[in-house]
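Q: Convert this sequence to structure tokens.
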Amino acid sequence: MITLSIIGCKNDNATPKTEIEVLSPPFFWEASNMYFLLTDRFYNGNPNNDIQFERTKETAVLRGFEGGDLKGIQQKIEEGYFTDLGINAIWFTPIVEQIHDAVDEGTGVTYAYHGYWTKDWTALDPSFGTTEDLQSLIEAAHNKGIRIVMDIVLNHTGPVTDKDPFWGENWARKNPICKFSTYNNTTECNLVDNLPDILSESDKEVELPPTLVKKWKKEGRYEQEVKELDIYFKENSLAKTPRNYIIKWLTDYIREFGIDAFRVDTTKHVDEGSWLALRDQADKAFTIFKENNPEKVLDNTPFFMFGEVYNYSINSGRIYDFGDKKVDYYAHGFDNLINFQFKYDAQGDYESLFSKYASINDTIFKGKSFLNYATSHDDGQPFDKKRLTPMETGTKLILTTGISQVYYGDESARNLTIEGANGDATLRSFMNWDDLKTPETLEILSHWQKLGRFRRNHPSIGAGKHKMLSQSPYIFQRSFNKNEYSDQVIIGLDLPLGSKSIEMNDAFAKAKKVTDAYSGTTVTVTNGKVNLNTPYTIILLEISEY
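A:
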């Protein structure tokens, strides 16, 4: 159980106490601090599963399997790596069984190490681990108060190879290639050549694809899978359409393992009706899991679903414009969309960034949210590609309103310019664990840890109202109230080293002592002010005594 000093009380009308109760804050998705990693590139917990399905071809740089797996993620969870970093949600790339062969699409021989080339939604890829590994990881995460986000793909299968046959024309289309200029030529098309697009919009009932039938019979589970499908379709009164099959297979991971959230890949390339159908079944599956596993339920937080609508910006509000059609994905099953705008806004000053995002959140996204990132696995123009300002990156990302997505290695300045790596491969090197032995990297990591823990402990940072208290020196307040829970913090940036005098705002009017979570210094409030002497230019203030 995470413990911290809560600012405020569960009930604002409660009798004030001299000492702040030591409690864990309630979890709010909109205020979460999320870690995103490539399953294959984070940590190798089981070297025995590194080579599967004879995937032994020589690949281009960073385009083969490198050994990361679910066991590795769990090991780092249990070691407290994520807890120390203030992470309360982990999103990892898809772990379902990938195509067995490699392809060459102009960037060199490539295997499906990234997880986005599905061969079978009903099985995990043994290179990533087993279902037992997944169950164990989820339990380990939940024991630490960390939610698990499963990355899912409904839009397409993996490329067709000699080992990975086409699913058939009743299931998918081989052309045309998307042109991205209208709604239809963005949703009913292949993203790239040889990436068959699922007929998600089809209402036509279909039989299982022959390639899947053959595979399941070889594995001795055909009858069981068909039996489960028949029960599912009957109980939910659903037609046997391509999207409904896949929705069943995806939501099985919620029903059986208690996955807390979905990150939805290629959201804008699928008709929005499919996302409503997915969300409906995901919510039902989450309810079933909780009913069947009451001892594993963390709290009453609903299932969460956020989407990758490529190039979506919060400047557009809740709407994505295809040119000939506008879609509100928030009205079609989504709680949140990934904001591709942050890296541009983060080029400016702190107050412009913080006030803009807090204002948009307050006026447009009530009950919904957005996710910010500085770096990702497929954005070739990250905020700080050369890792020149890793501490500034952390300050801006972690302290901005919205979910903060920490990309693996952001906190350790992992190299994003790998010699010989083409395209997005350069963003996907193995986690730089050895660098954490150097003083320079440890200093960067410590900065991210302090900010991350403060954010995790104070939902006001990610979801609260923002108020600038002083422009020079720059000091601001965040306050948050929801479900009878309240939280307030005061933060100062670019302050002088050494002695600092800070005036308390009304939110801290009754405080007797406050703690600077960045330096660990606790001081007494005198005449509405606190005086601190720390070797840092940042303060993170929380009330430690009334």
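The chain has two domains: 28-113+124-158+246-457, 466-545.
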